[in-house]
Amino acid sequence: MPELPEVETVRLGLRPVLEHHRFLSVKTRRGDLRIPFPPRFAARLEGRRVNRLWRRAKYLVAELDSGESLIIHLGMSGSMSVYAEGRDRKVGTYYYDAARADAGAGAGKHDHVVMETDAPARIVFTDQRRFGLMTLVDTAQLADHPLFKDIGPEPLADDFGAGLLGRALRGKKTSIKAALLDQRVIAGLGNIYACEALFRARLSPRRLAKNLTAGQRAALVRAIKTVLREAIDAGGSSLRDHRRVDGGLGNFQHRFAVYDREGASCGRTCGGTVRRVVQNGRSTFYCPRCQK
DNA sequence: GAATTAACCTGATCGC
DNA sequence: TGCGATCAGGTTAATT
């Protein structure tokens, strides 16, 4: 499910109830997600204050006042829901519906972690496929941690440009589509935004990564940045699982040019038809007429 | 070492 | 209505 824009949408929603707040209680309702919870997971969170909530690739990082950081990944189907404890309480820039904050919130079959903070708010992590994870890492060791050490550049960072992308793609013998999905090449892109960015850059997903010209790399960088920014502004894309923390849907799925549009006519005037092919086991959607 | 495939898990959908 | 096959936004161990 969640690619960079969806994770960023979740971060913006969680921030008012997490950043500068303390965990009052944390409950895990099973022993593991994709990986086991670390020893004393709940005890290491309870009473701790979140100094900062940031994002790296598709990971959320809550920096604690204990020197540890809570790492969250939503996998394919993970979502975070926020429930207020007070009626019509305004938390940051978000209003939460008090009716949703009943005792049953967090008791669903796939609700795996329930956290209470002093915002006050209840935060529920739900993930039916359990490809997500939560763990704790020493903040000082974060950059060297196995989950983080090989992650490539952040596409929305100011210094991400054609030069950085060129270095990342140098010598890559795989397709540009597969390269964009490789988190070591670029952080945060998934199947949707890789397809959409290639469409905007008018580049065929089947082109070899190492063969892009400087001009094509520059066009691809622009396409990646604009599609990600537009998606974040729209609250991400909701296909089946992605929800904003208040339960609302993202809107960007209505703006897909090619993703999941096999057989539809290309939105450009080229007269082409969107095609689906499988690359590295994943569906790729593109217009063979105007993506070269 | 790089690239590709298979596996992890659950649920929705489609064709028969 | 039921059943099996297929597919899904991600990551990574195993294999080529």
Give an account of the 3D structure.
With 292 residues, this protein is of the alpha+beta class. It folds into two domains: 4-144, Alpha-Beta Barrel (N-terminal domain of MutM-like DNA repair proteins), CATH 3.20.190.10; 162-286, Helicase, Ruva Protein, domain 3 (Orthogonal Bundle). It contains six helices and twelve strands. It has helices at 4-18, 41-45, 162-169, 176-181, 191-200, 214-233, and strands spanning 23-28, 50-56, 59-64, 68-73, 78-84, 90-91, 94-95, 111-117, 121-127, 133-138, 275-279, 282-286. The strands form four sheets. The chain has a four-stranded antiparallel β-sheet. Helix 1 packs across helix 6 and helix 3 packs across helix 6. The chain is globular and about 55 Å long. It starts with a helix and ends in a 6-residue tail after the last strand. The model is unreliable at 86-100 (pLDDT under 50). It binds a DNA duplex (16 and 16 nucleotides) through helix 5.
How many distinct helices? Answer: 6
Distance between the termini: 28 Å
Which structural class fits the helix and strand makeup? alpha+beta
CATH homology group of the largest domain: MutM-like, N-terminal
What is the CATH topology assignment of the largest domain? N-terminal domain of MutM-like DNA repair proteins
The 3D shape can be described as: globular
| Estimated helix fraction | 10-25%
Q: How are the strands of the biggest sheet laid out side by side?
A: 1-8-9-5
Number of strands: 12
Please outline the major beta sheet: 4 strands, antiparallel
What's the alpha carbon Rg, rounded to whole Å? 20 Å
CATH classification, class level of the largest domain? Alpha Beta
| Low-pLDDT windows of residues | 86-100
- Give the overall pLDDT as a whole number: 91
